[in-house]
Amino acid sequence: MSLVISEDIVKARGLFEQELIIELVLLLFQQEKISLGKAAELLNISQVRFQQILSERGINIHYDLEELQEDIQHFTAKGWL
């Protein structure tokens, strides 16, 4: 699925494209629609960096068994486990 947002709307809100993407991913994470790993992947940043962003904004990390399993798969695929 693609989402097209007019550049005028983005600029009118004083945001840059990457900032808007971060806001959308943060919202999805807060609503528990995506995991921490998926959020980091969508932003093309490390999970540690995403956790730093969460910390800077005072957003709690929710981490359950499913996310642990997802992380294990991710780390295994990267050859880290």
TrEMBL record:
Under the heading InterPro entries, the entry gives: UPF0175, UPF0175_domain
Q: Which domain of life is it from?
A: Bacteria
Q: Where is the signal peptide?
A: none
Q: Which family, according to the similarity comment? A: Belongs to the UPF0175 family.
Name of the protein = UPF0175 family protein
Q: Which organism is it from?
A: Laspinema olomoucense D3b
